[in-house]
Amino acid sequence: MIKVGIDLIHFYTPQVYLDLAELAAVRQVPVEKYTVGIGQEKMSLIDPYEDIVTMAAEAAYDIVKGREENIGLLLFATESGVDYSKSAGVYLHALLQLNPHCRVLEVKQACFAATGALLLAKDYVTLHPDKLALVVASDVAWYGLNTPGEVTQGAGAVAMIVSVNPRLAVIEEGKAIVENSKDFYRPSYNQVPIVDGKLSIRSYKELLKQVRPDKPLKFVCFHMPFATMSDKASEVLTLPLSPEILMATKAFNKDVGNIYNGSLYLSLISLLTTYPNSLANETIGMFSYGSGATGETFYLIMQPQYDKVIDKKVFLSLVNQRRKADFSTYERLMTGYEHREKSLNFTTTIPNSKHRFVLTSIVNGHREYLKR
Ligand code: CAA
Question: Whose CA is nearest to atom 31 of ligand 1?
Answer without folding.
Answer: 148
